[in-house]
Write a structure and sequence with these properties.
The complex is a heterodimer of chains A (339) and B (330). With 339 residues, chain A is α/β, with parallel strands linked by helices. Chain A has one domain: 3-Layer(aba) Sandwich (Rossmann fold), CATH 3.40.50. In chain A, strands 2-1-3-4-8-7 form a six-stranded parallel β-sheet, with helices on both faces. In chain A, a hairpin with a 2-residue loop joins strand 5 and strand 6. The longest helix of chain A is centred in the first third of the chain and has 26 residues. In chain B, helix 1 packs parallel to helix 7. Chain B is α/β, with parallel strands linked by helices and 330 residues long. Chain B folds into two domains: 180 residues, Thiamin diphosphate (ThDP)-binding fold, Pyr/PP domains (Rossmann fold, 3-Layer(aba) Sandwich); 127 residues, Rossmann fold (3-Layer(aba) Sandwich). The termini of chain B are far apart. Chain B has a seven-stranded mixed β-sheet with strand order 3-2-4-5-7-6-12, sandwiched between helices. A five-stranded mixed β-sheet of chain B has the order 9-11-10-13-14, with helices on both faces. In chain B, strands 1-8 form a two-stranded antiparallel ribbon. Chains A and B meet through helix 5 and helix 6 of A and helix 3, helix 4 and helix 5 of B. Bound molecules: thiamine diphosphate (TPP) and magnesium ion. The site of magnesium ion has 6 residues of chain A, from strand 5.
């Protein structure tokens, strides 16, 4: 699937919105990178810089009422699905106004209002959650679908295989979306995987398997996922879509490790195919969008991210006692007198 | 009134729950054929869309159930043997127990997991686990351990109605225990202990399959002139510690009978709570009657003596009230 022809259903407004969301992911994560470096953000942060096309191309194939789960590298996923930036950023800053009230942080963003059912820091662990959401759609007879993001590393978790088998035998409307950025921390996918393309594994589960070789092309990703979504909505069951992409940053911010695992020229090669730069070209050359419009769009997103950062920094930290809330719906945990 | 076994009481609760709420679905291995006897006629009554046979993929379907619960269903997931829960440990610990909290209360996860503790039947170490203490150590789960048909039915009904994940440990040694149960549906409240028997001399807390053995021990002690107060917590999380503390404050003595392993077990937790909060009331050491920290062997000759028995519980009670010399009761 390297066909870059524009899917028929997309209007120019959609294309601009996709570009807007890609820039949101980019500038959001660049801000996270800055504040992580300054020590204003605690814990770890895994960035999607370089992967904006697959994030947005996939999410944009969904409706607002569709579901989605992510993994540790998932700032972009709720953004791709249209979640407002302020509460996402505030969550990463550990603030009470965060989308998870400061309980989840960078690896566990969730915004149920846009169908983002949360992200799992444990690799592969959210896969059956997304599969279960598709099960709900099947049992209740709605036409919602569920999109499940995981990496090339996550592709080797057993629970993914159990889930794909379940989804296949029950024809569940779920799209397994493998973000193949070629590495799991420092381990090359080629050394850790039994097949040339992860999508080849779809054969074992009798579902369509598609590899998007050019995952830096937002329209190519969108077309592949859109096909899978249509297949799922029509009752055809699950699909496996693999997207080849690249992360520009290290595995996580501030992670230091000895040894080289990526060839020197690799980064430059992928930078030369930057998804946002390329799509700007497509918009101006193939769709006559003028430079002014595109500049204005970038400026708007920059202001939006600045605003989100300001909201996050200005927000209050939660009170320590709030640690005891939200475990159960029916009761607040009371600490033992000697705890 | 209808006489029901522990198993048929569970089946009755599932039936009522399915009838009362269309969002309730049951899933697990060999459910449609009613292999374990808790889903009689369910496929005919409710259709295959609400009664699901899963492949042998415990991690997958435990998690699938959680995802379904987060998006509008109220699944009952039958894990059959409690020993198989370990296959799904990641889902229980990392998703089911954490998702509501991690996402700041956005997730509501109304799901019930049922698991049968199939011990005492020469099934050896892979089928004889009583793993509730491991799960008690995971904040976010509600954990039930019914010891009678009445409680098995009523607690399951409450569990299905609850908006949080519940794990029910059923005791296979009780499967065929019989009791007259009301014809009308009823609930047993979660978090409320049952005072099975009143007495002033010593408090005996018994869990799950130990309860009937404890009743026998109480009868023996009564003949010896010792009045035992027997408490069945029924809910392990949240534990009705007030009921236990109130009793110990009155009797000054505590024995706990718990069929799980000894170290960090439910009995250990109850001991710690009482030692912390009612130390001044204690007139002697707390005594635990548990399964020792040994794996479960196959041969009946080896397995039989390992779990709390009426004799072991009675001996611990006598030690507690000073009717015999001190000693340990492991
Ligand atoms: C079960 C589990 N094992 C190991 C880890 C540590 N870990 C975190 S991310 C990661 C690599 C994941 O690689 P991949 O799935 O390709 O995602 P990527 O980081 O490349 O986006 C590892 C090994 C983990 N979080 N969970
Ligand atoms: Mg990877």
């Amino acid at each position: 699937m390297t066909d870059v022809a524009q899917p028929l259903r997309l209007e120019v407004d959609d294309l601009l919105e996709m570009q807007r969301r890609m820039i949101r992911v980019r500038l959001f994560d660049e801000a996270v990178k800055r504040f992580a470096k300054r020590g204003e953000i605690a814990g770890s942060a895994h960035l999607s810089l370089g992967q904006e096309a697959e994030v947005v191309g996939a999410c944009y194939a969904l409706r607002d009422d569709d579901w989605m789960t992510g993994n540790h590298r998932s700032h972009g996923h709720p953004i791709g699905k249209g979640s407002p930036l302020g509460p996402l950023m505030a969550e990463i800053f550990g603030k009470r106004t965060g989308v998870c009230k400061g309980k989840g942080g960078s690896m566990h963003l969730a915004d149920f209002r846009v169908g983002s059912l949360g992200e799992s820091g444990v690799v592969g662990s959210a896969v059956p959650i997304a599969t279960g959401a598709a099960f709900t759609a099947k049992v209740l007879g709605t036409d919602q679908v569920s999109l499940c993001f995981f990496g090339d590393g996550g592709a080797n978790q057993g629970v993914l295989h159990e889930s794909m088998n379940l989804a296949s035998i029950w024809k569940l409307p779920v799209i397994y979306l493998c973000e193949n950025n070629h590495y799991a921390v420092t381990t090359p996918a080629s050394e850790a995987t039994s097949v040339a393309n992860i999508a080849d594994r779809a054969v074992a589960y009798s579902m369509p398997g598609v590899t998007v070789e050019d995952g830096q092309d937002v329209l190519a990703v969108h077309r592949a996922v859109d096909d899978a979504v249509e297949h799922a909505r029509a009752g055809g069951g699950p699909s496996l879509v693999e997207v080849k992409t690249y992360r520009y940053s290290e595995h996580s911010e501030g992670l230091r490790h000895a040894g080289v695992y990526r060839p020197d020229d690799e980064h430059a090669y992928w930078l030369s195919r930057d998804p946002i730069v390329r799509f700007r070209g497509v918009l101006s050359q193939e769709h006559d969008v003028d430079g002014e419009t595109l500049d204005a769009l970038e400026a708007e997103v920059k202001a939006e991210v600045d605003e989100a950062v300001k909201f996050a920094r200005d927000s209050e930290f939660p009170e320590p006692a709030e640690a005891y809330e939200d475990l159960y719906s029916t009761r607040v945990v009371t600490p033992a007198p000697t705890a | 009134m209808t006489t029901m076994t522990y198993l048929s009481a569970i089946g009755q609760a599932q039936l009522e729950a399915m009838e009362e709420d269309e969002r309730v679905v049951v899933l697990g291995e060999d459910i449609r054929s009613n292999l374990y006897g808790t889903a009689p006629g369910f496929v005919e009554k409710f259709g295959r869309e609400r009664v699901w046979d899963t492949p042998i993929s415990e991690e997958g379907f435990a998690g699938l159930g959680a995802g379904a619960a987060m998006t509008g269903l109220r699944p009952i997931v039958d894990l059959t043997y409690a020993s198989f829960m370990y296959m799904a440990m990641d889902q229980f610990v990392n998703q089911v127990a954490k998702n509501r909290y991690m996402f700041g209360g956005q997730a509501t996860i109304p799901i019930v997991y049922r698991a049968s503790m199939f011990y005492g039947s020469s099934m050896a170490a892979h089928h004889s686990d009583r793993p509730y203490p491991m799960f008690m150590n995971v904040p976010g789960l509600t954990i039930l351990a019914p010891a009678t048909p009445y409680d098995a039915r009523g607690l399951l009904k409450s569990a299905v109605r609850m908006d949080d994940p519940v794990v029910i440990f059923e005791d296979a040694t009780l499967w065929f225990a019989k009791q007259d149960l009301p014809d009308e549906p009823y609930d047993v409240p979660i978090g409320v202990a049952n005072v099975v028997r009143e007495g002033d001399d010593v408090t005996l807390v018994a869990i799950s399959g130990s309860v009937p053995h404890a009743v026998k021990a109480c009868e023996q002690l009564a003949e010896e002139g010792i009045a035992v107060e027997l408490i069945d917590p029924r809910t392990l999380v949240p534990m009705d510690t007030e009921a236990i503390l109130a009793s110990v404050r009155r009797t000054g003595r505590l024995v706990i009978a718990d069929p799980a392993h000894r170290t960090c077990g439910a009995a250990a937790e109850i001991s710690a709570v009482v030692a912390e909060e009612a130390f001044d009331a204690l007139r002697g050491p707390i005594r635990r009657v548990t399964t020792p920290d040994i794996q479960i062997p196959y041969s009946p000759a080896l397995e039989k003596g390992l779990y709390p028995t009426p004799e072991r519980i009675a001996a611990a009670l006598r030690q507690s009230v000073g009717a015999v010399g001190a000693g340990t009761s492991a």
